[in-house]
TrEMBL record:
InterPro entries listed in its UniProt record: Cyt_P450, Cyt_P450_CS, Cyt_P450_E_grp-I, Cyt_P450_sf
One annotated Gene Ontology cellular component of this protein: membrane
Pfam families recorded: p450 (PF00067)
Residues the record lists as binding heme: 440
Family (UniProt): Belongs to the cytochrome P450 family.
Protein name according to UniProt: Uncharacterized protein
Biological source species: Aquilegia coerulea
GO biological process: secondary metabolite biosynthetic process
Keyword flag Methyltransferase: no
Amino acid sequence: MAPLFLGFAIIFISLLVTYQLYQKLRFKLPPGPRPWPIVGNLYDIKPVRFRCFAEWAQTYGPIMSVWFGSILNVVVSNSELAKQVLKEKDQQLADRHRSRSAAKFSRDGTDLIWADYGPHYVKVRKVCTLELFTPKRIEALRPIREDEVTAMVESIFKDCTKPENNGKSLVVKNYLSAVAFNNITRLAFGKRFVNSEGVMDKQGVEFKAIVANGLKLGASLAMAEHIPWLRWMFPLEEEAFAKHGARRDLLTRAIMEEHTVARQKSGGAKQHFVDALLTLQDKYDLSDDTVIGLLWDMITAGMDTTAISVEWAMAELIKNPRVQQKAQEEMDRVIGFERVIAETDFSSLPYLQCIAKEALRLHPPTPLMLPHKASANVKVGGYDIPKGSNVHVNVWAVGRDPAVWKEASEFRPERFMEEDIDMKGHDFRLLPFGAGRRVCPGAQLGINLVTSMLAHLLHHFVWSPSEGVKAEEIDMAENPGLVTYMKTPVQAVAIPRLPPHLYKRVAVDM
């Protein structure tokens, strides 16, 4: 048995080496680190991938080949190449690479995020652009965002004014995560799972458990994903995925049913995405799987990313008191001390908007855009990208390119006062939401919430480092992963700066 297995292994290795040699001779592939047989560059990649790829780009150039096992991944790291990938060659590079877990979670791409580019994607994208993320609906849902942001302010105020907490620091992330969680569940499902005392209901507990279980299942397959012929040794836990899918569907269908009953009683639909999708289901011929997939796309894309973006921004503001003070002076001039900020004030607060942009430039929440997959052989930057290869845009590296940005690693919001740069996919120097056919349809919603959270945090409080910690000692390292959490959650002392009556939550029931 052993000699037979060894023989098979030798044949496989020989075939793989031959295939990689054939690819190199047939195509002019981008340069890159030398791959090992079978594993490619997997063992050379450092845990924080976007930093590792940015380092490698210093050696191999702004377009390079990185082998994940036997799968070619091309990484681009500057705005000129990002434009080629996301605009000029966008159509041939608009498919999605789905891992086995992504295929299971998305029912083989019946959602939006994991769908290949084709009639289904175009239809679902149209639903998002023309129906779900319109300026009118975003405005109609504003009271929910403002409710949740004022709930955060009230919570911070209560905690920082307790006598026993005098001078003590708060873990900023805890408050941001609560806003992001409550906001996205209300927008998607029309439900606030947490009551005013902070107690979560039964559905909320189940929702959190489903999210946690999905993360656990998704992380369980690493190596075999990249070496297809090894997958028989790492079979997919079919039963676990089936149970997870059934549990997710059960909760979502129960919420959908509640909305259907409420709509029949009242005779009118609400603005939440679940209501919108249910009323549009026949018009766009959307299956239940697609409706459920879209709702969960919104949750996975919108829950962590806003909290992450604001936490990084706050870390930068605590490190840079000059910027914090300048933002507060602008708000004091425009808003004063007798009312709270509303989203309608943003257009009168240009420096605040520059802070949000600068934070997203330096710390994009998804620093390596989800990979695009080539549906045909295509040329980028003078190199071949064979059909079936994956292409990653290193948004983090693009936003810190010294050839494009002066003092690229400095947090200096003024740069956006000097030149107004779009961040919704029209300017390839700044791509926190992607660009082209697969640009994030909820970009404006994300910008509004991030800006609103920052505005309230800065208008209501002065923020300083924990006692005994110097600003320059704040740990700005990232945790490995698809989204960039801070490795060490930022802690800070909050001191109220407005009259006490302005710290009350403005609750809205909608």
